[in-house]
Amino acid sequence: MKTTKIIFWTTTILIFLFEGVMPALTSQTELAKEGIKHLGYPEYFGNALVVFKILGVLALIIPQVPGRIKEWAYAGFAFDFIFASISHFAVDGIDFQGFFPLIVLAILVVSYVTYHKIQRYNNIAL
Fold first, then answer.
1. Which of 21, 59, 73, 103 is the most buried (most CB within 10 A)?
2. What is the enclosing helix (H) or strand (E) of 111?
3. Is the separation of the CB atoms in 60 and 70 below 8 Å?
């Protein structure tokens, strides 16, 4: 169980950094605004996305958040990564920018699976 918790917290903190801290610190830079525009999205979409990303990572990282909310956060991030990948492939063709969201999706899946292993263990221990 200790290994599972280490894997869970490592992957969840990576998601927290990639999807919470980095967007919060860089969302208003010209590079970020140009990236959203390059993909064909309006600027306000990028701002809304950052707000939801921050709320999502807070839901994942705070242990007291109910499981149902965490499930929605995991689902939201999964959709985000899948559609980010599709957007990059559609606009830029096959390149690393299209694959990177899928790599982060794999990290998210590991976080999700270990989260459920921990939940099952806690339910059995009760």
1. 73
2. helix 96-125
3. yes
